[in-house]
Amino acid sequence: MMDFSYAITPFLAWLVAGGLKFLINSVKAGKPAFGLIGYGGLPSNHSSIVSSIAALIGLKESIEHPAFGVAVALAFIVVLDASSLRRQIGRQAVAINRLADSKEKSIPQLRERIGHTFIEIIAGIGTGILVAAVTHWVMQI
């Protein structure tokens, strides 16, 4: 039997994290928050995806396997990007939008909610690990 868990797990992590993010944003907004779908928010989709595959490799192959080390390194890069670079881009978007508002009304607004806070990243990592554990368990049945 073919093992599709390596293909299914990151997709499920993305789906679960995105669904949770939509629900959380909808509760906060008091209505369906379709406008908030995308980058930023709790939990981090990016962190969830990369941590799910790292966790799955650790569960299936062991944490001593070289692929686990590669997956953790990739996850580390993605998490750093989500927490630092993309947050800085969001701050720049705020400043650019302020400048554009004061000068030119026809310039479209840039998306300001791009990066993630530490809590959003931890929630994404937790979501990814949980999805990997459940997927691993279900695929063994």
TrEMBL record:
Transmembrane stretches, start-end: 6-24, 36-59, 65-82, 118-139
What UniProt keywords are attached to this protein's entry? Membrane, Transmembrane, Transmembrane helix
Keyword Membrane recorded:
yes
Pfam families reported for this sequence: DUF212 (PF02681)
State the name under which the record lists this protein.
Answer: Divergent PAP2 family protein
